Amino acid sequence: GDVAAPLWAAVPAAERSAILRRAADRLEAEMEDLLAPIMREAGKTVANAVGEVREAVDFLRYYAGLAETAGDVAAPLGLVLCISPWNFPLAIFLSQIAAALAAGNTVIAKPAEETPLIAARAIAILRAAGVPEAAVQAVCGDGGVGACLVADARVQGVMFTGSTEVAHLIAATLAERTTRTGHAVPFVAETGGQNAMIVDSSALSEQVVADVLMSAFDSAGQRCSALRILCVQDDVADRTLAMLRGALAELSVGNPDRLETDIGPVISADARATIEAHLRAMRAAGCRVTQAPLPDACARGTFVMPAVVEISDLSCLKREVFGPVLHVLRYRARQIDALVDAINALGYGLTFGLHTRIDATVARVVDRISVGNIYINRNIVGAVVGVQPFGGHGLSGTGPKAGGPLALSRLRQPESGMIVGAAATPDPVLTAWCGPQIMAATPMLPPVDRVLAGPVGEINRYQTRARGTGLCDATTREGLMAQVAACVATGNRAAVTVAAKALLGDVPPPIAGYLVAYSPSDAVDFVLFDGGDDAFARLRHAFAARPGAIVPVYRRAADGRYPLALLQDERCVSINTTAAGGNANLMMLAG
């Protein structure tokens, strides 16, 4: 992979795209043959297996399109390591590989130890489509194999989907070195979530229950996006829960090769034991747990019956339970703001659902919640590539989103920074302060809010927002000014030490409003660095050792730039417009 990197990078973007599209066509042609290994190895139902192949096809075509649009101007990283999970052994496996290949990188792919056969089939399809053997290699094994690969200095970037804990271990290993160009090793992590849905008294209970069943229990709850916490306004909680328990009793748990099966097994005996231990702890804590007994036909597998656990406080949920377990919390109408704040305080930020027919509530909650994917009056799983770009922030991941416009940006050299939308007119005060040279490398990036293509009856908005606060660390006044300019251009606060503030000297009032004082224990969302190698190493180690969200450290590129698009969070808001009383688009079609 490392030796072949220049050869694959030299293949024109149009040709790389054509190869990925051929792979997508082959996947579609071989769908029926792929279903059996997905069902057997990952325990997926027929419907979920079909959905997974379709998603893999979508990823291949989407990244082919992105690469074609970007052309050959951007330099790739080199060899990229892709570590994928067992819960989407084809779709995420191929998504990571396709993104890396599309950007011109070679790939070492480490599939989950539970699903090597699906990975082997996927690699064979890529080869048949024309991906050279040296451009993508699969290495199977347990977590130890992945750890060895992460530690290899030839690896110039890592894509990972899995647990938050493993993501931290990878970040710590990568902090030990830089890329060949002297930057921090790019790390794209998509981790778990404590995903919540809020249901108010205006919501339609029948629709809520259908969406909750799909969100919490489809794929046996083994999706990163799955619903873990259902918050129901107490005025309608009894009715909603009674309906939910009745619907739960109708779900068929069993062998996924049977068409009548709604829920298959969880992935392993260890996973089952972890889920059962959590349910025992919840019962011991006095929580009401609704769970049907396991049917005799399921006695010899790793089956877990779907469970509903009624809780009185979010604080009893320490970490994500990855399985068919839904926690239900009642709330009073006046507590909705505090409830959203409590969900944010969990530290995750992946998916969130809201069921209400009150537009003011939608606006209020959407503005307050901090997650990557927001779903209004619909289920919160099954994000469609390019329609609902998927990925979170905080403890849920680093960004950029999979199946989104910035997906390839982290897989290229920092000098080839890309942005979504047009840069705004340079700020005259900022230009006068830091000078035209810095401003030439720092285009103003206002928040983006655009409607993506999607089905009639649904509106999907793609938005960017400032990440929050960036630490500015430079040894010169010019270096600090470039960092403050990068923060101002992206709407972020710029954290500066007392010494840095003194070095900056007089700052004009509009820009001074972006500055905040920084002390070593303060939390920041990203770090901008301009200085020597030793100081850079110390900084990387210090932030990799911090608990909580992974904090990216960006070094100033040779051309004076920072990756501005990565200093903003992306989010997608998906609204079912038919739920709140009709859709004007549908009415127009009627004639």
UniProtKB/TrEMBL annotation:
Write out the catalysed reaction: L-glutamate 5-semialdehyde + NAD(+) + H2O = L-glutamate + NADH + 2 H(+)
Organism the protein comes from = Ameyamaea chiangmaiensis
GO cellular component terms? cytoplasmic side of plasma membrane
Matching InterPro entries, A to Z?
Answer: Ald_DH/histidinol_DH, Ald_DH_C, Ald_DH_CS_CYS, Ald_DH_N, Aldehyde_DH_dom, Proline_metab_enzyme, PutA_C
Please name the Pfam families in this protein's record. Aldedh (PF00171)
Entry's EC annotation: 1.2.1.88
Per UniProt, what is one GO molecular function of this protein? L-glutamate gamma-semialdehyde dehydrogenase activity
Protein name per Swiss-Prot or TrEMBL:
L-glutamate gamma-semialdehyde dehydrogenase
Q: Where is the Aldehyde dehydrogenase domain?
A: 4-409
A biological-process GO annotation: L-proline catabolic process to L-glutamate
Pathway(s) where this gene product acts? Amino-acid degradation; L-proline degradation into L-glutamate; L-glutamate from L-proline: step 2/2
Sorted keywords for this record are: NAD, Oxidoreductase
Name the domain of life.
Answer: Bacteria
